[in-house]
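=== RUN LOG ===
request id: a7f3
mode: sequence -> structure
chains: 1
length: 363
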Amino acid sequence: MFAHIFVIVIVGWIRRSVQCTVSVVSVVALALIPAAYGADPPSFESDILPVFKARCLACHSGATPQAKLDLSTRESVVAGGKSGPAVVPGSSEKSLLVEKVLSKVMPPVEPKLTDEQISLIRMWIDKGDAALAAKAPVVVTESDVLPIFQMRCVVCHGKRKQEGGLDLRFQVTRLKGGPKEMYGLNEEATASYGKRCLMARRLVERGVRFVQLFIEYQIWDAHSGLEDSLRYSCGKTDKPAAALIQDLKQRVLLDSTLVIWGGEFGRMPNSQLRQGQGSAGRDHGPSGFSIWMAGGVKAGYVHGATDEMGHKAAENRVSVHDFHATMLHLLGLNFRNLVYERNGLKERLTDQFPARVVSEVLA
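=== RESULT ===
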């Protein structure tokens, strides 16, 4: 009884000096607990579990504990539930469990935990079971973090609202700082094409079946000034294009989307120098050039090669008709059966030329 009177008297005196209230009260409370519970730090089984049994386990135990938080064992308390770890061993101030009981959110009904019980829990977290304090660090995965974001953050950073352009529902935007940073919208060089790529992702996300991206004029048509032209073109498109692939993959859209990056032809291996147009460029190279694809194809796989000069395709050649047949196959269409009747002819995308599905590139 003396201990309770001592606390009340001290608190009454502290009210005259508000700045010291919190620190002195906590010191008094912590000083009183060892006297009540002995010199040894409190243990979960003998000191904490009885408190939980009396006030908490009705909701937080069993096969389906509320908020997935099981308070029946030391390990399950540390693991936490839907909102993350319930305690941070060695730091009661950072522990969600302490935050909830101090704010009287837990338990949800009367009677609430007493100051003495709360202080005991805090002491157990700070100085309790050696096994708790020495527990190996918990490996936190995205599945642990995402529920916390969904409960506390997605109102401002989710589907309907994305303050600062940050969407916390997806890993790639968390790591990159949102679509503005990810697609390069804050950089002059990448902003224009970045907007196009971001719009493409949003169109695909909303179910648009076919999306085609263009860029201003013909920036790849480098008949002269090759070095400056390529630096400009690559610097403008590389980051946004990579962001588009990452974003589609993160949102599990790449499983049902075929991305094709290419043009009408490549460039010749020899220089082209036009009179009065400065440094050299490269003329059109229709006999051997590259495209890349993502979605439904092998990642990191290179198919075919040109001759040693880079003039024309030499190994594992793929014709335009082969490419069209493969593209239609990836879209779930048989290129032989997809026809359009015109002037008595059954026109195909592959025309009447031989064509095959390049199965080597399929995932």
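=== NOTES ===
The longest strand covers residues 266-272.
The CA atoms of residues 101 and 113 lie 7 Å apart.
=== END ===
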